[in-house]
């Protein structure tokens, strides 16, 4: 039986993984609820730790003061770039220095949990590298390097303007030029004249976002312990700013991915395991359609079945995310809405919501995560599939307006209404980018699905495009559950006439109906809603028209059980990004890559099957 790891009791899993039996599920649910209660018990801080945090606050305050002084040209931050930190440390009392070192060591010990341990245990059980593995990262995970040689780009040559401390420095020291580099051309959706950013390549492209903040690194560590290296493992990094068709137009991304997979299968003698995360799962779905198409990849209808053994879909936002809507609508989301007043003031002075919306819109890849499925999936003005009994405000309205006197805010908006509102009140160039690249509807019949085979706009929408004809391929859906995730928002007419936005989030609303600073929370992994990560896996792909070849689907949900001593949640987190370091996720992925995926049995903790039955999409047969 498979035992889930906990922070204190690291019991290695056995070869047999627990199934979805009633008794086992009840036991695991009880453990899950007990763990959530334990998380609420917080020990009082020691005086030493309070003193240390006070000191950190003081240092942070100094840097904030320096930043604002620099903004008003009182002090130039350039003067501080070459300071010798050793001289600073010598002037700090040794008691504080030793406490900082002790605190840092404890944090490093917490963060470095289970390095290599999962892989080492599986290797001792005889699990070893079998299928070559290709990893497709999620949105913003891949570093972006400057390769431009124009006058304004030379200073950044081969430096990462996304995903490094170079990005942070460029953003602080020269925000306007940084924006010019990261934003794509509004009309073409490609490189602006004289600017050239490209996705970093290799494992280094996605192992860490910035130094110390891992993304795929723990998976790489464990893969290496069972025999993976650059000869049989590959990170297919991509420029996530581009629309999917433009990934091929500019970078020949899908052509190169197809070539690598074919070469790996030929040289290794085994079919591929694809592992994708978040937006990367949409990229995989698009690739499947592209490679089959006679007008594009020319691989034929059986290419996927011949080359792909399994697809591990990790936290895939298959139906988008509601926070993707508000990001491009007003540059806001829960992360910005629930900041305190001082932080909001600093953020708006540094990078305003208008600027954030402008940047997000000029990255067409971000808009691939707008919600898909309309009211059939996300609900209408009176009801939603994931509404709870007695819930005062339905999730069916994605945007609520408390003040309906304005012509801009006359009524609440469902998902479909919100998308239309976004397009109606956006610049023409953005509207064209979205309409020419994506589709957000539902194909209710087999005939509609087949008609979409020739429409690339539908290829990343699993409700409009079928899975490849690959009866031998296995799909594994691994995602986190049990972490509050933004589901609806309160908006208002933008009160500042100088801001070029029609509406913005109303963060003044907090009430006993579940609204916190204008945000109504639902279920998910903290970033992507449960309906998006779970619906297609739990039901959608069980319908004949979306899965005509009968590809087998297995779901393994992972409850969010964070370690309160770990800033990243520890080995049992279900967070959207941090799940990549989760012990059981690494265990399952290695088993699939090692050819032991058949031992995995479906495990559910959430109510996704109940919600899926309420979704207004039905099988024809």
Automatic annotation (TrEMBL):
It comes from the Eukaryota. GO terms for biological process: antibiotic biosynthetic process; lipid metabolic process; monocarboxylic acid biosynthetic process. The keyword RNA-binding does not apply. GO terms for molecular function: O-acyltransferase activity. Keywords: Membrane, Transmembrane, Transmembrane helix. Residues 1-23 are annotated as: Disordered. Pfam families: LCAT. The chain crosses the membrane at residues 51-69. PANTHER family: LECITHIN-CHOLESTEROL ACYLTRANSFERASE-RELATED. This is Phospholipid:diacylglycerol acyltransferase. It comes from Penicillium vulpinum.
């Amino acid at each position: 039986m498979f035992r889930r790891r906990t922070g204190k009791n690291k019991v290695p899993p056995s070869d047999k993984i627990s199934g979805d039996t009633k008794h086992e599920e009840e036991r695991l649910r009880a453990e899950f609820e007990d763990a959530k209660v334990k998380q609420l018990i917080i020990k009082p801080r020691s005086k030493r730790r309070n003193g240390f945090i006070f000191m950190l606050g003081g240092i942070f305050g100094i840097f904030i003061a320096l930043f604002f002084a620099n903004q008003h040209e009182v002090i130039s931050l350039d003067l501080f770039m070459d300071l010798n930190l050793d001289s600073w440390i010598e002037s700090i009392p040794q008691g504080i220095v030793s406490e900082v070192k002790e605190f840092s060591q404890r944090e490093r010990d917490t963060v470095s949990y289970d390095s290599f341990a999962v892989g080492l245990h599986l290797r001792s059980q005889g699990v070893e590298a079998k299928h070559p593995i290709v990893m497709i990262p999620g949105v913003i995970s891949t570093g972006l390097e400057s390769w431009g040689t124009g006058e304004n780009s030379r200073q950044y040559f081969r430096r990462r303007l996304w995903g490094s401390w170079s990005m942070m420095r460029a953003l602080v020291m020269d925000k306007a030029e940084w924006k010019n580099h990261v934003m794509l051309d509004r009309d073409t959706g490609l490189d602006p004249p004289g600017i050239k950013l490209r996705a970093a390549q290799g494992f280094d492209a996605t192992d860490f976002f910035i130094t110390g903040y891992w993304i795929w690194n723990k998976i790489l560590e464990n893969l290496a312990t069972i025999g993976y290296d650059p000869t049989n493992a590959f990170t297919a990094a991509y420029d996530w700013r581009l629309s999917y068709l433009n990934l091929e137009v500019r970078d020949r991304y899908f052509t190169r991915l197809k070539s690598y997979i074919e070469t790996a299968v030929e040289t290794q003698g085994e079919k591929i395991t694809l592992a994708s995360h978040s937006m990367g799962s949409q990229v995989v779905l698009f690739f499947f359609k592209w490679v089959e198409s006679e007008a594009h990849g020319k691989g034929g209808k059986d290419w996927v079945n011949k080359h792909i053994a399994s697809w591990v879909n990790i936290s895939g936002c298959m139906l988008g995310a509601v926070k993707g809507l508000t990001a491009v609508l007003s540059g806001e989301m829960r992360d910005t809405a629930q900041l305190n007043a001082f932080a909001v003031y600093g953020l708006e002075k540094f990078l305003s919501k208008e600027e954030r919306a402008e940047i997000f819109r000029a990255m067409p890849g971000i808009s691939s995560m707008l919600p898909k499925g309309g009211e059939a999936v996300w609900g209408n003005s009176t009801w939603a599939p994931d509404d709870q009994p007695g819930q005062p405000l339905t999730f069916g309205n994605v945007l609520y307006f408390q003040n309906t006197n304005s012509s801009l805010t006359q009524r609440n908006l469902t998902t479909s209404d919100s998308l239309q509102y976004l397009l109606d009140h956006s610049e023409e160039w953005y509207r064209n980018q979205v309409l020419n690249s994506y589709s957000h509807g539902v194909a209710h019949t087999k005939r509609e699905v087949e008609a979409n085979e020739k429409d690339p706009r539908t290829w990343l929408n699993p409700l409009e495009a079928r899975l490849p004809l690959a009866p031998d391929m296995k799909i594994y859906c691994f995602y986190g559950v049990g972490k509050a995730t933004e589901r609806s928002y309160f908006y208002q007419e933008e009160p500042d006439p100088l801001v070029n936005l029609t509406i913005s989030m109303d963060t003044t609303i907090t009430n006993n109906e579940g609204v916190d600073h204008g945000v109504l929370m639902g279920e998910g992994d903290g970033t992507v809603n449960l309906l998006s990560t779970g619906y297609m896996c739990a039901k959608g792909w069980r319908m004949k028209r979306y899965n005509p070849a009968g590809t087998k689907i297995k779901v393994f949900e992972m409850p969010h059980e964070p370690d309160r001593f770990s800033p990243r949640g520890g080995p049992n987190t279900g967070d959207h990004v941090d799940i990549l370091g989760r012990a059981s996720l690494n265990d399952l992925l290695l088993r699939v890559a090692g050819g032991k995926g058949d031992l995995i049995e479906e495990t559910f903790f959430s109510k996704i099957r109940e919600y899926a039955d309420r979704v207004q999409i039905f099988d024809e047969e």
